[in-house]
Amino acid sequence: MKRIVQAVVGLAISAVALWLTLRGKDLGAVLGAMRDADYRYLWLYVPFLVAIHVSRTVRWGILLEPVAKVPWSRLNAVSAVGFMALVILPFRLGEFARPYLVAERPRIRVSAALSSVVVERVADGLFTGLLLVVSLLFVPDGTPGIRVLRAGGVVVSLAFAVVLAFLVLAYRNRTRAVALVTRLLAPVSPRIAARAGGMLDAFIHGLRLVPSRGKVALFFALTAAYWGVNAWGMVVLARGFGFHLDATAACTLLGVLVVGVMIPAGPGMVGTFQGAVVLGLGLFAPKAIVATHGVAYANVLWAAQLGFQTAIGVFFLFSRHIQLGRVFSAPAEVGAGLEAEETQYRAEG
């Protein structure tokens, strides 16, 4: 029932976002813009998608190295299927797929795998939030919606900065971090507070395994390269729809898109993805052009990313490294795994 409710709410959010994006638009003109686009640029965009997949897979492997050096064949398969689950499952439930699929107890515990994904997401959120804040400084003050977007960039950056500060606290003082969370949740429900505290305790055990300084530097270098390739690829594809984006426009569009897809939505992030792209383009292009060619570009960009990630995910779905049933049970199993590991840690003292 919980999963059904999540799916329904996600679909509702997607439907509203898609309606807001297409409201008042000439759908015939949008289809015409999609038909008349120069799809040679779509083929040029494919190598960027490959580079994005490889860079984020290598980067994830760096975070897992202190626990175990996962063979490339397994890491690549889990990454492909995990990111496919992320884009096709509603409410971003696919985030749990990678840590559960790569977990291999006792060598790789669920807590350690989950902590690697959380650190990765915090780094991405902080990087793109700051990128959005800086890039929006170069957008004229009179641009419609600029104040709201600037405030949104600051809020996202601060939110991830707070999470990062908490992770540092948890790394340095596990007992204090668990006590803080338990104390905050206790007024809501003592049972939930106790359970959350126990799961957090297990998570922090995994967090305490960090790469060397050199590997940390490489991780951040790959993070910058990963998002740089993302922005560059979007620039290339945009040319097929008549948009010539400079560095500021590309970084702003990327930042707005990342913030937009953070909103839990239906399968494929449909609606929130297109709405964010159209909103970002509206800062730099005439409204009439964005209403046709911009919407067309948003749909093709969405389809290209979704199609590529789904294709490689399906390809690896039947490899020897993946158990199909575990993909859809990942959200529940990660929680169960954390609880089991927390019990084990207590027994070990």
From TrEMBL:
Protein name (record): Flippase-like domain-containing protein
Signal peptide segment: none
Natural source organism: Anaeromyxobacter oryzae
Keyword Hydrolase annotated: no
Annotated TM spans: 41-63, 75-93, 113-139, 151-172, 217-237, 243-263, 270-290, 296-318
Entry keyword annotation includes Cytoplasm: no
UniProt keyword annotations, A-Z: Cell membrane, Membrane, Transmembrane, Transmembrane helix
Any Pfam family hit: LPG_synthase_TM
Listed PANTHER family: UPF0104 MEMBRANE PROTEIN MJ1595
Coiled coil feature spans: none
Membrane topology: Multi-pass membrane protein
Compartments, as annotated in UniProt: Cell membrane
Top-level division of the source organism's lineage: Bacteria
